Amino acid sequence: MGLQFPNRSRSLDNDGLAIRFSGYDGMFEIRFSMDLVTLERLTGAPAAADDASLTAFDGIRTKVETVAIKTYQRSRKSSYRLAASDFGY
Fold first, then answer.
1. Name one Pfam family in it (predicted).
2. CB 3 within 8 A of CB 30
3. Which one of 21, 35, 52, 77 is separated from 15 by 20 to 30 angstroms, measured CA to CA?
């Protein structure tokens, strides 16, 4: 079936300073997080734990999901933390 993102929800993890979101491979939930520093590098948005970070994430969501799929295909685990290096930085 492959990794899909039918649920558009995402959340801000204030403790981990990251955006969290999930994908699904069949019935299995695959959890992802991306730290706010990586988000800042990709979008130029300040790395702040607020709604602006969620909006910035939404603006690049397609790119993030593409990278998440490629990362998942390399090593099928149940959770990932995406870093700037995953995006070629």
1. DUF1488
2. yes
3. 77
Residue 21: strand pairing partners: 10, 32
**Spatial CA neighbour of 55 closest among 19, 23, 87:** 19
- Number of structural domains the chain divides into: 1
Does residue 41 fall inside a structural domain?
yes
> Side chain identity at 31, as an amino acid letter?
R
Whether the Cβ atoms of residue 78 and residue 31 lie closer than 8 Å to each other: yes
User: For residue 86, is it within any domain?
Assistant: no
Determine the 3-state secondary structure of 37 from DSSP: helix
* Residue 59 CA, distance from chain mean position: 12
- The burial of 48, by beta-carbon neighbours within 10 Å (0-12 exposed, 13-18 middle, 19 or more buried), is given as middle
State the amino acid at position 41 in one-letter form: R
